[in-house]
Amino acid sequence: MAEEANNDIKSMSFEQALEALEKIVEDLERGDVPLDQSIKIYERGEALKKHCDLLLKSAEDKVEKIRLSREGQAVGSEPLDEA
Question: Can you say how many angstroms the Cα of residue 24 is from the centroid of all Cα atoms in its chain?
C-alpha cells in the first residue's frame, strides 16, 4: 500500500525529491501532525531518501576526472574513483 502511494517518487528529479523530503522534516519537527499521518509521511520520507541516494550514486558513477597534459591541456578523462 505504501509503495503505491509513493509511485510518483520514481519520476522526481533529485531537487524535487529533496524539496519534498525537507517539507516532511519540517512537518514532523513541528509536532502537530497526528500519529497515523506522521507514520505515513515518515515512510514517504524514507522512500524519498532512498530515491535521492540512488540518484546521487548514479551521478557519482558518471563523474569523471579530467586528465591534463604537462601544459595544462585536457587530454582525456578517467573514472573519478577507480573501483
Answer: 14
What radius of gyration do the chain's Cα atoms show? 19
How many domains, the chain?
1
What is the identity of the amino acid at 46?
E
Q: What is the pLDDT of residue 71?
A: 81
Give me the sign of the Cα torsion angle 46, 51, 52, 56.
positive
User: With pLDDT > 70 as the criterion, what percentage of the chain qualifies?
Assistant: 83
Q: Dump pLDDT digits (tens) for 3-17.
A: 667 889 999 999 999
- What domain range includes position 48? 2-79
Q: Could you tell me the sign of the dihedral formed by the alpha carbons of 29, 30, 36, 37, in that order? A: negative
